[in-house]
């Protein structure tokens, strides 16, 4: 089956006073229809920059896509002119942001903001757009949608606002939904509700979701497949069961072993020693080598490639590549 | 909610009472805050008073502003002439009242010019940045480098003395203030998530600037408008005093002071005192009101709901 969205060898760089650095370095992945792909990694690994590259929303003048392709229905989004891109944004590819508290314009009523998004892409009159907006609010489980539509963002709770953002993102039936840490700013109980809502909408609309997160719990619950990113590169890609049962990359293993376990005794949570390398000063070999406990000499000189291990499981590690047992 | 309305009307208007209540609540809270600030209330009173005088000048003024009575020239304040008469026997009280019309019009038009040119310039400069933003803001800096009265004089003199050129000169001098304010507001607002969110749903840059950034910048701009009124009226009066504003015999506070100043030495103080007081109270009114407005619109000073 043809993927809905395919990112190929994406390289995005930022120009700063300190020099030019690559935030995303040769990232490839794809999402099928109705599938949820998790993009996991710690802060600064390039996962948000990847999503902004897809949307064409990189900060002007500072950020730019250097090479690669973003295939969406047979056309490369990087070649699409800005005007056409605007008709894709929000309409066919929509995005949910991390901060529901500040993602809504404080001076407009909820209904008006939703109707604006709807009117942009659907040829609807104001009244019809308003009706559609209320319908969307009902769909995302907001009680009394007619009166909530008349309220201002500050009158809603964080969970309600994230529901509004989801309603806005889903209002034009997008084929791809990019959710950038959609639950990070919410309470745990609300998180579960929001995730349930996203899953339910996905089943109804057959939307593909790109779920960007650092929360492996969310990944286990939501995703079909996972891409693990480290320092701007994909280090491991697998379906969710394989990833949790037999992670191959030492970084993925480290991430998983740093999760608290319910079963069995555990004194301390494990952590990965060291920090992410500065993008201005990347190690010449494997980018994870300085923090890796299995490191051998070759790791510090040779950049490992992605090794295909069958069944869509790929891993960027020299030891895996050479078939060395650890 | 009203009890007498039919059920279907209640459904149709279900959201309206809450909106009205909301607006009423906001209004009450504002007015409470405002009246707590007695000086701001005084400012509002002065503004309203002078506006009423300006609107109803023919009703308030006992004489026509340019009716001369040479037999009654240079008379001190009396029952017939509250503020006395000038060297042509014109009633100073009537002239002061009529002059309020010119001053308030000047303020409105000058601030309008500053606002409608300055705000778009500042918004564009901040939103698009780059060389165009730099160019706009550096030109604004050049304008700001001149003392405002000197610059207004230069512009008014270049355009030729007259009421219209005075208004335009004062308006142009005020542009950089509005541009700078809008610039700083836009710089702050354009990085906010809701702006990025509206870009992510495909809103055009120009629509973001007009529909999303401008309304959020309105509160400080409103304060600036009020303070700008006071500044504009004072600057326009100064231009008229210097002979670059209205031409005689039109009644204008600055011009009246200018015409009456030589009589101070001979003891006819009322010729300059009353127009001077008019200027002082009007500007005091706008400045006190603007300060009060700033306090009210500053969310940090707003009280929590009870």
UniProtKB/TrEMBL annotation, chain A:
It is a peripheral membrane protein. Keywords: ATP-binding, Cell membrane, Membrane, Nucleotide-binding, Transport. PROSITE patterns: ABC_TRANSPORTER_1, ABC_TRANSPORTER_2. It is found in: Cell membrane. Signal peptide: none annotated. SMART domains: AAA. CDD domains: ABC_NikE_OppD_transporters. GO terms for molecular function: ATP binding. Residues 5-256 form the ABC transporter domain. It comes from the Bacteria. Its main location: membrane. InterPro entries: AAA+_ATPase (IPR003593), ABC_Ni/Peptide_Import (IPR050388), ABC_transporter-like_ATP-bd (IPR003439), ABC_transporter-like_CS (IPR017871), Oligopep_ABC_C (IPR013563), P-loop_NTPase (IPR027417). Belongs to the ABC transporter superfamily. This is ABC transporter ATP-binding protein. It comes from Paenibacillus profundus.
């Amino acid at each position: 089956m043809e993927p809905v969205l395919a990112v190929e060898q994406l390289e995005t760089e930022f120009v700063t006073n300190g020099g030019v650095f690559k935030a995303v370095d040769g990232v490839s992945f794809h999402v099928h229809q109705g599938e949820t792909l998790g993009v996991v990694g710690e802060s600064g690994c390039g996962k948000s920059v990847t999503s902004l590259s897809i949307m064409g929303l990189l900060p002007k003048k500072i950020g730019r896509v250097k090479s690669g392709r973003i295939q969406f229905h047979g056309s490369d989004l990087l070649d699409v002119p800005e005007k056409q891109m605007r008709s894709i944004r929000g309409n066919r590819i929509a995005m949910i942001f991390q901060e529901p508290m500040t993602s809504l314009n404080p001076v407009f009523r909820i209904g008006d903001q939703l109707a604006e998004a709807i009117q942009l892409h659907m040829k609807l009159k104001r009244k019809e757009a308003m009706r559609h907006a209320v319908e969307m609010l009902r769909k995302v489980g907001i009680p009394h949608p007619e009166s909530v539509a008349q309220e201002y963002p500050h009158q809603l709770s964080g969970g309600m606002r994230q529901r509004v953002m989801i309603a806005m993102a889903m209002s034009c039936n997008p084929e791809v939904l990019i959710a950038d840490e959609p639950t990070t700013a919410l309470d745990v109980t609300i998180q579960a509700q929001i995730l349930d809502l996203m899953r339910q909408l996905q089943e109804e609309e057959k939307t593909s979701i790109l779920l960007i997160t650092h929360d492996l719990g969310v990944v286990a619950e939501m995703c079909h497949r996972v891409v693990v990113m480290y320092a701007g590169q994909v280090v491991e890609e697998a379906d969710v069961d394989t990833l949790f049962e037999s992670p191959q990359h030492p970084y993925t293993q480290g991430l998983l072993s740093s999760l608290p376990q319910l079963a069995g005794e555990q004194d301390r949570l494990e952590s990965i020693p060291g920090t992410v390398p500065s993008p201005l000063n990347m190690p010449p070999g494997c980018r994870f080598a300085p923090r890796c406990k299995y490191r051998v000499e070759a790791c510090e000189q040779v950049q490992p490639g992605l090794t295909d291990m069958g069944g869509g499981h790929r891993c960027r590690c020299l030891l895996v590549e050479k078939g060395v047992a650890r | 909610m009203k009890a007498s309305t039919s059920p279907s009307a209640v459904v149709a208007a279900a959201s309206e009472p809450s909106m009205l209540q909301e607006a009423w609540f906001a209004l009450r809270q504002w007015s409470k805050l405002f009246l707590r600030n007695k000086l701001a209330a005084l400012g509002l009173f002065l503004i309203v008073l002078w506006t009423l005088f300006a609107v109803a000048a023919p009703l308030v003024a006992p004489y026509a502003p340019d009716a001369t009575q040479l037999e009654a020239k240079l008379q001190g304040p009396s029952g017939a002439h509250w503020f006395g008469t000038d060297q042509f026997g014109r009633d100073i009280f009537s002239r002061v009242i009529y002059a309020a019309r010119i001053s308030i019009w000047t303020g409105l038009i000058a601030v309008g010019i500053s606002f409608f040119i300055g705000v778009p310039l500042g918004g564009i400069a901040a939103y698009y940045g780059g060389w165009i933003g730099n160019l706009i803001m550096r030109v604004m800096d050049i304008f700001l480098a001149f003392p405002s009265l000197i610059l207004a004089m230069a512009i008014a003199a270049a355009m030729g003395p007259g009421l219209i050129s005075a208004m335009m000169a004062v308006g142009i001098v005020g542009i950089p203030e509005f541009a700078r304010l809008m610039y700083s507001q836009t710089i702050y607002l354009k990085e906010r998530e809701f702006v990025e969110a509206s870009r992510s749903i495909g809103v055009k840059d120009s629509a973001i600037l007009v529909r999303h950034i401008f309304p959020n910048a309105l509160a400080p701009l409103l304060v600036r408008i009020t303070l700008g009124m006071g500044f504009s009226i004072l600057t326009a009066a100064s231009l008229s005093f210097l002979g670059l504003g209205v031409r005689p015999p039109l009644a204008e506070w600055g011009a009246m002071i200018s015409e009456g100043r030589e009589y101070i030495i001979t003891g006819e103080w009322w010729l300059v005192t009353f127009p001077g007081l008019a200027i002082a109270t009007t500007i005091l009114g706008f400045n006190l009101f603007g300060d009060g407005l700033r306090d009210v619109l500053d969310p940090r000073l707003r009280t929590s709901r009870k």
